[in-house]
## 1
Amino acid sequence: MASMVLAAQSVLVMMILTRTIGMEKAGIFSFAHSNANLMYFIGEFGARRYQASDVKEKYSPSEYYGFRILTTSLMVLVLAVFSVYASITRGYTADKALTIFFVGMCLVVQALSDGYEANMQQKGRLDIAAKGAFTRSSSLIVAYLIGIFATRSLVVSSALAFGLAACSFLLTVFRYSSRFGERKPLFKSSTIRGLFIALVPIFATLFLNNYIANAPKYAIDDALGDEIQALYGFLFMPSYAIGVVCNFIFNPIIVSYSKLWTENKIKEFRRLVGRQMLIITGLTVLALIAAFLLGIPVLSLVFGADLDGYRKELCILILGGSMWAFCTFFTTIITIMRKQNNLLVGYLIAAAVMLLASKKVVTSYGVTGAAVLYTCVMMLLAIMLFAFCMIGIASQKKKGSMSDAVS
C-alpha cells in the first residue's frame, strides 16, 4: 500500500494541478518532482539497500543514523544552491525556484526517514516502516489537495506538504524507532569514512541511474518549456509506476537475498533472481497491452489533457520504464554481492551518452526523441548490468565449488 500511494502521489497531485491552476504549473511540479527524486539520492546516498542487507551488523543503527543526518544536510544545501543558481542562470521565477526547493524538502524528510526504516527492515519489521511511509506519502497528497483548493498557490501547497511530511515522520517512524535499538545518532569519524568509502560507488550509480531517467526532462526544461514538460510528465507516469511497483515486489526480500548470498546458497539465489526477472517481464507485457489499448484515453481523462497522437511515445516510455526496473534490480543484486565498484562502468557510459545527446535529440525530435533516447539508453544499461550480475554469480559459484573441494 505504501508503494502504491508513493506511485500514485505525483499522479494525483498533477491531476489536481491541471484541473485547478493549469498545465504550466503542472509542468513546474513535474520538473520539481523529478529534480527532487534526483537530489534524494544525495540524502539516501545508497545506504538503504546496504544497511538493510547488513545482516552481520558491521555498523550499529546509531552509526547509520549519524551518517544519514550528514547526507540529508548535504542534500538541503545542494537543493538551496540549485534553486538560487537556477533563478540566476535559467531565469526561474521566485515561485518556480521555491517550488523546486520545497518539493525537494519533502524528499529530504523521506531520505531521513529511510534511514530509520532500513533499520526496521533489517530487524524483520518492514511492516512498521511501511506504515510510516504510507502515512507520510498520504499526508503529501492531502497537503496538496488542501493547499491548492485553499490558496491556488503551488509554493504554499509545497511548503505545507513539507510540514505535514515532517510531522508524519516524527509521529510514526521516528516515534517507534526506539524499539529497534538506540536512535541517538553517533558521529564517529572512522564509521563515516568507512561508510563513505563503501557507499560512494552505490550512491554514484543510483544518482546516475536517476539522472539518466530524468535527463530528457532537463533537456525539455531548457528547450521546450513547462507545458511540454507537463505533457511528457503525463506520458512518463506509467513508466515511473512500473519502477515503483517492481521495487515494492523485491524490496521486502532484500534480506532473504542477502542471507542466501552470505551463506553461499547460489542455486537458490539464482532462482530468486530469475523469478524476479520474470515478474518484471510479465508486468511489462501487461503494461504494454494496457497502454496500447487504453493508455491514451485513460491518461487524457485522468489529467484533463489532450494526449491524442502520443500512443507510440507512451508505449516506448513503458518499455523504458521496464528497463529502468531491471537496472534498479540488478543494481540491488550487485550491491548485495558487495561488487558495487563494478556498477560505475555501466552507469558512466550510459550517463555520458545521455549528457551528450539529450538536449540535441529533444530539440530536434521533441517528446518522441526524449522517449526513444531514454528507452535505448536504459536498455543498453540493463544489458551491461545483467552481464555483471551473471559474472558475479558464476564467480561465486566457482568459489563455492572450490571451497567444497578443499573441504
## 2
Amino acid sequence: MGQEIDRSHFRKRDFDEFRDRLRQETALLKTWFLDGAFDTDKLVAGCELEAWLVDPAGYAAPVNERFLALMQSPMVVSELAQFNVELNTTARPLRGSVLNQMQGELSTLWDQCNQTASRLDAELLMIGILPTVRERELTVANMSSMTRYQALNQQILRLRKGKPLKLDIKGRDHLKTSHRDILLEAAATSFQVHLQIPGALAHRYYNAAIVLSAPIVAVSANSPYFCELDLWDETRIPLFEQAVQVTLSRAAKTNRVSFGTGYVGSSLFECFEENLERFVPLLPTIMDEPLEKLAHLRLHNGTIWRWNRPLIGFSDNQRPHLRLEHRVIPAGPSIIDTIANAALFYGLVTSLAAQARAPETQLPFSQARDNFYAAAKDGLNAQVTWLGEKQGAVCDLLRQRLLPMARRGLQRLGLTAANIDRYLGVIEERLRRKQTGATWQRAYVAKHGKDMQALVNAYRTHLRSGAPVHEWGL
C-alpha cells in the first residue's frame, strides 16, 4: 500500500493545501505529456510479490515486524496486516534472459525470507487468499504499525460516515457479511507485474492491458476460498473491491478499487486528470519536495487501485518515466508460475500494443470489463468475447490465439528462445491440463473434504517442491 507518512490525523487546511499542490503537480504533468518529457529508451520489467506468514499449523502468523527486523532487506517490506509482507525484484531491461534472472532473484529472496521466518517458527506462503484465514483475524489488532495504514483506515471509515464495510460475494457459495475496518483487504495478496513503457505509446500499452485482463486472470486464478466458502476462482477481485469501498453506493464511479471507467484516448494523462477530478484525497500529507518530484500526485495515485494502474517514476538520469502496474494476478502458486504469468503478460501486451489496428477499437470497454469479471468468477471455464469475435471459451482463446501471440511478443522484445519456451511452456501445460491454483484447491477439497488446514499444508508441501501447479497431485 505504498510509502509511509508522518501522521494519521488531518485538518481541513491539510486537505485544502494538498488539493492545491495536487492541482499544481497535475498541471506540470500535463506539460510533460505535451512535451514528450518521459524516458523512452527501453522497456523495463519488475514485479512485487505479496506473501503470507503462516505458523506450523497453517494459520496466519502476525509476526511481520519481528520478521522484517531480522530480515533487514530493502527488497522486503511491510504490508497492511502483520501476517503479510511484500517481496520486490530489481528492475531489468526486458530482453535476453530477463525471465530467468527474475526467477533466480525471487527464488533467492524467497529462500532467505524462509530462513529468517523459521527463526520465528513461521514460513512464507504465496497464495491469493489463505484458506485458513478467519474473519476474526482481519481486525485492527493485526494491522501493521505503519502510520499510513492507520490513516487509510480512519479516512475510509470517515468517508463512509462510520458505516461498516459490507461484503456480498456470490459464487458457488454466498458470502454476506459486514466489517468495521479495512483489514479485509489484507486477505487478498497479489503478484504485481510492472512494465516501464515509452511515453508516446503508453496509452496503447494501458488499453492493451485492460483488454488482456480477462484471459490473464482466468489462467492465473488462485483464490477460490474465503471464510471456508467456495466463491469465485479469483475471489481476491471482489474482496479487494468491496474491502475498501469508500462510497456507500456500489454503483458509484469513484470506487477506489475498480476496473476503471474506460480506455484512455490519446494519453495516460487522462488517468491522472481523473484522479484529480473524481477522487478525494485520503492521505493529505504535505511534503517538502520540489514540484518536479510530483510527491503529492504520486501519493494520491497510490490510494487509487485500478486493476491496471499507471505510475510515474524517475530513471537513474532523473528523467520521469511511465510504468504500468498490472494488478490482476494473484500470488502463487509457485515461483515459476508467477514468472510464467509475467511472461504471458509481457508477450501479450507487447503484441497488442504494436498492432496496426488498436485492440480497444475492436472491443468496447464495457465488454472488456464484463470479460474480466466473468473470468475472475469462472476462471478457465469463463465465456468471453475477443476482438470483433463472438463469445467463446477463454481456455480455447488462450491456447489457440493468445499463446502464439505472446510468443511473437517475447520474440519481438528479443528474449532468448530458451526463456520463451520455458515460461510459455508452463502456461501451455497449465491450459492443457486445465489446472490453475484455483482448480487444484477445489480438486483437493473434492477429494479430501473441506479441511482448510489440510489444504494449506498440502499446498505448501507442493510449494516447497518448486514444481509448477500443473504438476501438483492430490
## 3
Amino acid sequence: MRKSPKWGSQAALVSLCLSFSCAGAWAQPKPEAPAPRPALTVTVAQAQTQNLSQRLSANGTVAAWQEASIGAEIGGLRLTEVRVNVGDQVKAGQVLAVFSSDNVLAGINQAKAALNEAKAVASETQANADRARALQPSGVISAQQFNQYLTAEATAKARVESANAALAAQELLLRQTQVKAPDNGVISSRTASVGAVLGLGTELFRMVRANRLEWRADLVSSELFRIKPGQKVRITASPQSEVSGTVRMVAPTVDLQNRTGVVYVDLPASAMGVLKPGMFARGEFEFGSTAARLVPQQSVVVRDGFQQVFVVGADQRVKLFKVAVGRRQGELLEITSGLPDNANVVVRGAGFLTSGDLVKVVP
C-alpha cells in the first residue's frame, strides 16, 4: 500500500508554489497612467496694434439755436387771417397773420383831419406873426402884442407836430395789424386762430430762426476741460440720422445739483431734415488718434466682476490675466494694461475655461 505524504511536506509544496506564483506576478511590468486629455479645443490670437481715434461719448438734446416768439403788437383787434402753419418755411418780413384794421383806419382818418386843422391854424398864426414883425420897428404895435403873435405862431407849429405824431402813431398801428416774420426760419408752433380777439403781446407763433439747430450735451465737470471751441462732434439720434457738428462754446457754469456742464454744438443746415428740436441724441467728441493693442471682443470674459483673458502657455495650459479695456473698434477691444507681450489669447471657447485647464489649440 502507498503511504500518504505527511502534512508537513504538503504544506511546504503549497508554500513553494505560492512563492513561484507571486514571484511571477511581481516580475510583470506595471501599466502606465493614461495621458491627460484636453478640456476644450480653442482658437488663439495675439494682440494687434492699430491707430484708434480718441473719443468721448456724451448724451444730449437737439434744440433750436434760437426760437423766436412772434406775438401780437396790438391788442383788442380781431384776427381775420392766418397765412402760415406749423412746418412752413418763412422769410424775414413775410406776413404771417392779419388783424382787422377798421378801427385803425378810422383813427387814421381822424388824425389826418386833426392835422389839417392844425395846419390851417398854423398858417393863420404865421401870417399874423409875419405882419407883426413888419410893423414892430415902426412902433405901431406894443411889445406885448408882438410877443402874443409870436407865441401863437409857436403854439400852432407845436400843434401841427403833435397832429403829425398822432397820425404816425395810427399808421404804426395799421402796420402792426400785419404780423410779420422777424427772420428766415420754420414755424415750430402756432396758437393763432381766425376770429380770436387777442390782447397785446399774446403769442401767435414760434419760429426756429434761420433753420439753425444745436446739440446741447451734458458732460461731467471733470471732462469739460477737454472740450474746445471748433472741435468736431459726431451726433447720432438713430442709425439713419447721423450728422457732424462743431463745438461753439462750453457753458461758463456747472449745475450745482448734478455737477454737469452744457456744451453747445452747432449743427449744419442739412441737419434740419434729419434731426428735430427736442430729440435725444448721442454724440462723440473726437480728440485725434493713438496706437492701441487690440484683441477680439470674444476673448474678454468677466469673472468675479473683473474683465479677464485666458493666455495659453507653452505647456498648453491656460492662465487667467486681469486686464483693463479701453476703446472699441468693431469686434475688437483695446487692452490698456494687464496683458503680457506676445501672449496667445484664447478666443473661441474662452467662456468655458478655468485657470489651469489643458486645451488643444486649432487654427
